[in-house]
Design a protein that fits this description.
Helices cover about 35% and strands about 30% of the residues. It contains 4 helices and 6 strands, in the order H-E-E-E-E-H-E-E-H-H. It has a 6-stranded antiparallel β-sheet with strand order 1-2-3-4-6-5. The radius of gyration is 16 Å and the shape is globular.
């Protein structure tokens, strides 16, 4: 799994109309962030966008699937779905897909509770 520097730069340019974009290497691939929220994934120079139960049908309708890796000997499907190849050549359509992915990622981030500080405080009280 890799993400080439050229492809990472290309992805940043593609998504620039969304707002400030950062692309950060992770686990051999890269995460694509807008305003601190990861909404896309790059693996082997392929773009995957964040999806949920409502938006994954858009991907399925275009015949693409989720990013899958092997964990503990079993396939694990992530909530990032491959961007259909034809969408990358259509700037307006690409931005529609990216906006939906960003909205899904923001919603999921907002719903995720922050890590508990009670564990750390309990250790210090002993």
């Amino acid at each position: 799994m890799t993400a080439s520097n050229d492809f990472m730069e290309h992805a940043a340019e593609l998504f620039a109309p969304l707002g400030p974009i950062a692309v950060r290497r992770m686990f051999g691939g890269a995460g694509v962030y807008c305003r601190g929220v990861m909404f896309a994934l790059i693996v082997d120079d392929t773009l995957y966008l964040k999806a949920d139960a409502e938006t994954k049908g858009d991907f399925e309708a275009r015949g693409v699937g989720p990013f899958v890796y092997t964990g503990k000997g079993k396939p694990v499907a992530m909530s990032y779905w491959q961007l259909p190849a034809e969408v990358i050549d259509e700037p307006e359509t690409l931005l529609e897909w990216a906006r939906k992915a960003y909205a899904v990622a923001r919603k999921q981030k907002a719903e995720t509770p922050p890590p508990s500080r009670r564990t750390g405080m309990a250790r210090h009280r002993r």
